[in-house]
Amino acid sequence: MKPEYGISALIFVTTVACTPAASQSSLKPDSRLKSSFGMLSNVVELRDGKVVFADTRDKLFLRADLKSGRVDTLGRRVDSLAPGAPAGDYKFPGWVALLAADTLALVDFSAIRTTRWDGNGRPIDVLPLKDVSGKTPVLLYDTVGHGYKIDYQAVLGGGDPGRSVLPDSIPVLRVHLKGGKVDTVAKLAAPEFGDATFGEQVQQAAKVFAPNDHFGVLPDGTAWVARGHENRVDWRAPDGTWRKGQTREYTKLPVTQADKDRVLVQVREQGKQFGMPQDLQIDYPFAESKPPFDFALANPTGEVWLQRPRAKEESPLVYDIVDREGKWRREVAFPAGATLAGFGRNGAVYASIKTDDGKRTVGRFRLN
Hints:
Elements: H1 20-23, E1 24-32, E2 40-45, E3 51-55, E4 60-64, E5 71-74, E6 76-77, E7 89-90, E8 93-100, E9 103-108, E10 113-117, E11 123-126, E12 140-141, E13 146-150, E14 169-176, E15 182-189, E16 193-198, E17 201-206, E18 214-217, E19 223-227, E20 232-236, E21 242-243, H2 257-272, E22 282-283, E23 295-299, E24 303-307, E25 318-322, E26 328-333, E27 338-343, E28 348-354, E29 360-367
């Protein structure tokens, strides 16, 4: 499951000189779970080598041991959460973050709350986060006392229902977990917009496949922004100073009719849960070409992995690796059916792997 989550239809959607041998890396399989799951979030490795993740389709919080194959369900899934509900209850576990050592944060997309858990899978409490820029979850955390939230409410018209605006940029807010202070630490380029038609209704929506900026943060509070239009990664040090990365040329892939058809099938599938008629006429705005990357995730050691778009949906994924200096270092090819999901110690790379039954499982790889 990718770390960029949408809000309504609006968000639904210098070359480094080195030899080919030095610039290309491959993954060596290490281990994988035999169990399969509906859809996976990110994967977080604990100090004892076990991993935690969420099954976002079956809405479960899970801990697994890749050595023994054992998988345990943590906490309890419930259909409704009253104010003051126990920290071990959740409705829609969607993302996992490391707060400190083996203290985990579980982000509940439906309840709009974050709960803390220890490394043994026991719930601790609910983080006392105040509402910041609308009813959407704080998704990212560092280990020095901050949460981070992309302020999509600015795009949706602020606090004025039914009004949308087209800002030049979108702020990234940093929330101090102690005291609740909020400040802005970065600004992302606003999405490109076009007209979307749903039956007789026309509204502005973000263009599908247009370049977007991606934000992330390392455990020590160092932040990064992968710039979609410039194809570079900028870094913000904890003291607030910025380092601009190197722009890199890339081959643009055209958006095909097959790409558009696939997206519209996904829109209809998503719309089922909201009662959208399946015969409704839908027209969506599409970019002419695909961006340099459509997903980004950082290794805690300080490398950002940028996922390249594919010409064909079934093709294996390739990731471009950018270091803390903002320089491209190498590319890494994943096996077919595998998607980057997280990182661990000693060069461990975790992936969400498609199984024979069409579900997903967790696999661990090592870089060759």
